[in-house]
């Protein structure tokens, strides 16, 4: 197959993992004598122009809820028709166990995006996932420095091998080996897109340590954080990319673990009472029970999140709320993708 002449990489990144992979790809391309352009999806203000015929299009984005986040999907949906070759990549939540990396799940990220792009006339020639360091510190503590360096080293070496195929014009579908688990997890991906992402949008708040500097508002790639005059407020546009939490200079942005525990317990009790008194305590349908619980959960979360936002204005209540968050404590840490000079010297 003919060697490529140009490549155009479109990426979306929160804490820098996808951006790092995009930069690595660009570096490999340039070293191979291929002109490469990088474009941040979150900074595209006008309609995207299709790269000239023969230019390889590469789309790189993290996986949120086993799918590309909405900002990436909207970009793909709006992308004009064309006939270029396209390589899809993603960054998943990688963790280190000894000398091994636990693989994440791509879910429907590639399947859905490939379907949309094929309908537009594009030719999908690659689908490659990368298990970069997990940045989801709402769920687990930030990875230590050694683990982050290890994961960067391994993914860099892995991308180098894949680039040898991609840049020579050969197809590369590394994701095919995960197809079974990706199909099995697809219902969860759908549930996340319809409900889950809206719930997680209300998992962030600014603790009493917030000095209202506005940094999170300015840096949010999807403009999901609103200035209320006293402290930032997260809207449903939030993609849970973790950029605000991991880059806040005061480490004042935290996850509302206490709020979610309260809402979960209350919603569970309320949904059980509702089913018992208004429907039937003998109802066996898991779908109906889940739908009732989810509806009550979302209504409570919407109301209590706003109430919490008001309570945070009172300093001593704000401190109590902050103490109920695991992300408040120093041992939990924060994550940001590290520059290459932090790990290449130790390779």
From TrEMBL:
SUPFAM superfamilies, sorted:
4Fe-4S ferredoxins, Flavoproteins
The keyword Ligase is annotated on this UniProt entry: no
Record organism: Dysgonomonas termitidis
Quote the protein name from its UniProt record.
EFR1 family ferrodoxin
Keywords, ordered alphabetically:
Iron, Iron-sulfur, Membrane, Metal-binding, Transmembrane, Transmembrane helix
Domain 4Fe-4S ferredoxin-type, by residue range, is 202-230, 237-258
Decide whether keyword Iron is in the record: yes
> Membrane-crossing residues?
97-117, 259-280, 286-305
InterPro entries on file = 4Fe4S_Fe-S-bd, 4Fe4S_Fe_S_CS, EFR1-like, Flavoprotein-like_sf
């Amino acid at each position: 197959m003919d060697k490529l002449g140009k490549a155009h990489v479109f990426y979306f990144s929160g804490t820098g993992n996808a951006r790092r992979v995009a930069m690595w790809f660009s570096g490999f391309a340039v070293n191979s004598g291929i002109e490469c352009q990088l474009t941040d999806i979150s900074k595209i203000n006008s309609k995207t122009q299709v790269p000239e015929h023969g230019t390889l299009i590469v789309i790189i984005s993290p996986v949120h809820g086993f799918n590309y986040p909405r900002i990436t999907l909207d970009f793909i949906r709006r992308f004009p028709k064309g006939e270029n070759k396209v390589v899809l990549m993603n960054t998943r939540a990688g963790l280190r166990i000894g000398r091994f990396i636990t693989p994440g799940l791509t879910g429907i990220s590639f399947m859905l995006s490939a379907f949309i792009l094929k309908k537009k006339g594009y030719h999908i020639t690659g689908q490659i996932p990368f298990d970069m360091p997990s940045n989801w510190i709402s769920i687990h503590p930030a990875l230590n420095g050694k683990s982050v360096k290890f994961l960067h080293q391994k993914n860099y070496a892995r991308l180098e091998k894949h680039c040898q195929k991609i840049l020579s014009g050969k197809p590369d579908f590394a994701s095919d080996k995960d197809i079974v688990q990706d199909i099995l997890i697809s219902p969860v991906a759908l549930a996340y897109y319809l409900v889950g992402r809206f719930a997680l949008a209300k998992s962030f708040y600014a603790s009493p340590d917030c000095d209202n500097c506005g940094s999170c508002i300015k840096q949010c790639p999807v403009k999901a954080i609103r200035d209320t005059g006293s402290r930032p407020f997260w809207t449903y546009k939030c993609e849970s990319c973790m950029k605000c939490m991991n880059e806040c200079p005061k480490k004042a942005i935290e996850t509302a673990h206490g709020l979610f525990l309260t809402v979960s317990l209350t919603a569970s009790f309320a949904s059980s009472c509702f089913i018992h008194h208004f429907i039937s305590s003998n109802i066996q349908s898991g779908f109906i029970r889940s739908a009732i619980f989810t509806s009550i959960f979302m209504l409570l979360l919407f109301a209590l999140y706003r109430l919490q936002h008001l309570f945070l204005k009172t300093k001593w209540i704000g401190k109590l709320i902050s103490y109920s968050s695991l992300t408040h404590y120093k041992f939990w840490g924060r994550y940001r993708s590290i520059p290459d000079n932090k790990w290449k010297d130790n390779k």
